[in-house]
Amino acid sequence: MKKALGSVSLIFLLVGSSKAGFLVDFEVSVGGIQQKPSGYASYKPVIGSDRIDLKRDANVEDKTNYWVKLKFEHPIPLIPNVKLGHMPMKFDGRGTLNRDIRWGNFTYRANTEFDFSVKLDRIDGTLYYNFPFLKTATAGVLDVEFGVNLRAINFDGKLTGVDKTSSQRVSESKSLTLPIPMGHLAAEISPIRLISLVGELNYVKYDKNSYYDYAAGLRLNSHGILLLPLKPFVEIGYRYERLKLVDVSDIDAQVKIKGGYVLVGIKF
Question: Counting beta carbons within 10 angstroms of the beta carbon of residue 53, is it exposed (0 to 12), middle (13 to 18) or buried (19 or more)?
């Protein structure tokens, strides 16, 4: 969280110093998000039972983590606007195997304890356009954004347990970085200046693999209350994410993550 706040502070200084020279709208928000995982992961599986179920087998714990979002809009036609985001995700668990499980190059023995972790840190860079003339035509009530989200997933899965062949405690992990382009759609509905309904969707499907997430929230604005160039806001909402990988670098996984979030931000 300290790293996130430090990054946000630096961006404030950089953008604030250039604000006078460029007609750029800037928004930054940071807050906490619940991460409740479910699903499975496997590495070089041979049969279906080689999947590690995150809840039933590994008893992974829910987490609360930070979420940082930045947004830049400018008046230059044809050049896309930019959104950036970062969300770390790492889940750890421990359990007792009720069957032999193949993970990587080892077969882990049944009726022995094991430790398991999976990481899905992600960075988002979104290039988007506002739907032409819609915000003006609706007197600021409706704004729709569409574009491409370029997401980088830092995946790491690690299993530590007792090898069936050697009876020794062994550990094996698999790490990879996945660049994933996704379609992006977002909307904001503001029936009154103080309240906005916001939502966004990112989606991609290729072969048997798929990845999507959506978020929906209620934003409380300070527009019209505080006559300042800085406009604070608070956003409360819910987010859902589902990633399915089929034989991607020997990884098979289907992970779902859901939970509520709270963001505090400033627009100027």
Answer: middle
Tens-digit pLDDT string for the chain (268 aa):
555 544 444 444 444 444 444 578 899 999 999 999 999 999 999 999 999 999 999 999 999 999 999 999 998 889 999 999 999 999 999 999 999 999 999 999 999 999 999 999 999 999 999 999 998 899 989 999 999 999 999 999 999 999 999 999 999 999 999 999 999 999 999 998 899 999 999 999 999 999 999 999 999 988 656 566 788 999 999 999 999 999 999 999 999 999 999 999 998 8
pTM of the predicted model as reported, rounded to 2 decimal places:
0.86
Taking the CA atoms of 170, 50, 65 and 267 in sequence, report the sign of the dihedral they define: positive
CA distance 76 to 69: 22
Contacts of 162 (CB under 8 A, 6+ apart): 108, 109, 112, 113, 114, 168, 169, 170
> Strands (DSSP E) along 193-250, which ranges?
195-206, 209-221, 231-248
Q: How far apart, in whole angstroms, are the C-alpha atoms of residue 227 and residue 100?
A: 65
